[in-house]
Amino acid sequence: MSSPEGTHAAFAPGVEVPPRETTGITARRLLGVPRQRTRTDPTGDDMTPAPADSGTLAFVESPVQLLNVLEWAHTAQATALTVVVLSPHDPMTRGQLRRMAELARDEGHTVRWEEARGGPTAPLRTIGGLTPLLRRACRIVLGDPFSRYVQLLLTLTRARELVVVDDGTATMEFIGQLARGERLVRWHRHGTGRGARDLLFAPFANTARRRLTPAPEGRRRRRTIGLFSSMPVDVPPGVQVTANDFAWTRARFGPPRLTRGTDLVGTSLVETGVVDADRYLEAVRTLARTHGATRYFAHRRESTDKLRRLATETGLEVVRPDLPLELIARRGPIGRLILSFPSTVVHTLPLALLGTEVRVAVCDIDPAWLTAGASPRAQGFLDGVTGTARDVQRLHFTGEPAAG
Asked: Residue 374 needs a FRET pair 20 to 30 A away by CA distance; which of 75, 117, 129, 157 works?
């Protein structure tokens, strides 16, 4: 079976092709950190006058975040948008980000690529170069409120409008923690979060959380907090929600050509230490055999060793997409049935593929699959991801349809 447009096959059984990174965007060297002279009120908010409208500044660290920034810009009809890519180390993520950056430029947006993790002095250079933009921006759009980099940058802005776009299922956890007034901690993280680095960074994290918390009614120069999401969330009072229905994706691509086969979507739950590798591979093998799946779309964070083993033991063609799966599926070709474990795509693919005959099914994670080191919150969170998905079929771990 041929790979869809915009992908390349990483592994077929017995074949090895290492992940690759595209090229073409040169990182800027940015020197110097300007001295800050600002006054803050007791809540940590900057009290200097808000800047004149100089456009919107968006920060992204993953391809899905950049996709959702483009969806937000399409819905909000935003102009003067500058997207700052805080580039990670992972080659697959970098490759997808470069492809997404090309699409953003095609839409008329400015893309600024920052090698934000390129050595010990990179954060200082990056922050110093971005500070003037942060001080002038009237609106900040961000994709990962859990990111320490983003939290640090939020302490430098006077923007009175902050918008959070989806960063996958992490959005659900962010809104829950924000509503409960809790520290921002990723759902799969295990431990107290009170290590030396956490304590050192705590003042910045606390300031960022306050910036992301809606200000009380009647406050002077009240900032607005927006959420652009396709996830089912109950937001705290004061957060303005706009639904992400993937209108840009559907207008820009497709409809796709459908194959007669079944495609399986991978997850990085093994890599994050949540699910045991052997249990996961057995579940993939069972699903592939039960539903006749022939292709496995790998998550960008799945390890090369695991994918090599998966291809050998299951006979599946492993495909490593160079764009987010929502775009790959919309461009096609794609199977008439897509199988997934609890992840973002069980919420986003039905929207991106609206109007097609593609069905999406989600396989629950059995508690027996979890590792001893998995976060105590893991099972409940994964059950919530599956239970709140709309327009999908639920499967037991045996691969059979759930009763009722």
From this structure: 117
Question: How far is the CA of 236 from the CAs of 176, 221, 252, 341, 362, in angstroms?
Answer: 9, 20, 33, 29, 29
What is the tens place of the pLDDT at every residue in 322-349? Answer: 999 999 999 999 999 999 999 999 999 9
Question: What is residue 378's predicted lDDT score, i.e. its pLDDT?
Answer: 87
Please say whether the beta carbons of 385 and 188 come within 8 A. no
Tokens 């923690």 correspond to 177
Domain at 347, CATH number:
3.40.50
Residue-range definition of the domain harbouring residue 387: 249-395
Per-residue model confidence as pLDDT tens digits over 130-141: 999 999 999 999
Residues 205 and 263 placed together within one structural domain of the fold:
no
Task: Note the pLDDT tens digit of each residue in 361-386.
Answer: 999 999 999 999 998 888 888 888 88
Give the number of other CB atoms < 10 A from CB of residue 203.
11
Q: Is pTM beyond 0.85 here? A: no
Instruction: Tell me what pLDDT residue 187 has.
Output: 52
Taking alpha carbons only, the member of 248, 329, 246 closest to residue 295 is 329
C-alpha to C-alpha distance for 375 and 167, rounded to whole angstroms: 20
φ and ψ at 227, to 5 degrees? -130, 125
The stretches of 212-257 forming alpha helices (DSSP H) are: 247-252
Beta strands in 202-315 (DSSP E): 224-229, 239-243, 258-265, 293-297
SS3 293: strand
Q: How far apart are CA 215 and CA 76, in angstroms?
A: 22
Q: How many domains does the chain have?
A: 2
| Rounded Cα distance, 225 and 239, in Å | 5
